[in-house]
Specification:
About 35% of the residues lie in helices and about 10% in strands. The protein is globular, with a radius of gyration of 22 Å. The model has no long low-confidence stretch (mean pLDDT about 90).
Length: about 290
Amino acid sequence: MANPEDTGVYNPRVKEFTELVHKAGGLCGYDQANANGLLGITRAKEAGFDMCFFNLHKTFSTPHGCGGPAVGATGVTKALEKYLPAPLIDYDGEKYFLNYEVTNNPYSIGKVRLFNGVAPVVLKAYAWIMSMGAEGLYEVAKVAVLNNNYLFKKLMEIDCVDAPYIRGKQRVEQVRYSLEKLTKDTGITTGDIQRRMMDFGMHYWTSHHPYYVPEPATLEPTETPSKEDLDEYIETLKHIFKEAYESPEIIKTAPHRSVCHQIDESGMDDPEKWAITWRTYLKKYKE
């Protein structure tokens, strides 16, 4: 699990969950994807997880997925060490080194080809962490939470925006909003809004498919933008929402200032149409 998960809500009872799983003989994995609001505050170890990976994107200043090559760091408890691929990053009391001994372990798959990740991404994250220092990283958490809740408060003042879960609870470093009312009123979807935001050079993410929040918009400002940046973003969204009600065709035909074109996403929520590998595609559509 991720905590906070992608709606931006933190589960303070997470240790109870991991203890229940451990009592049943299971193991727990932590997706520490949304760590901007937690740096210097919480740790996966105290939450009782057996495995945790940290995505360097977003939290540690590097690109995310299609925005650039992503890299992560994975840590496990001693009990899981023998299952890891090689080489491990080990420590002899004086220096860190690459340990290849696990390649001889029958539980390991051996050496992983791209074990060292993407060098520029790792270097950028390392430089950022070292330049921030412990106090700087703690400041990151505070500013990320402040920025997100400022954005949350301002967007929740807009009639067509909602956050339909755990009402009244503070979010951490992101929020998954719903534009369901906007869609019902105008026919404009969150995907349409996403394409229109390209015309203003701004990032806007919807959600993973399939959607479990209707017409979702997942906004995660992090610690980077200033108040002026956030205000500009809010005013841009208000402008586009106004267009949705008054000039929807402008949005339907967007983007107008991007090299990206519109794509057909009608099959995204239908598993019968998915083909995640070439072999699966041939099996489904060879006839």
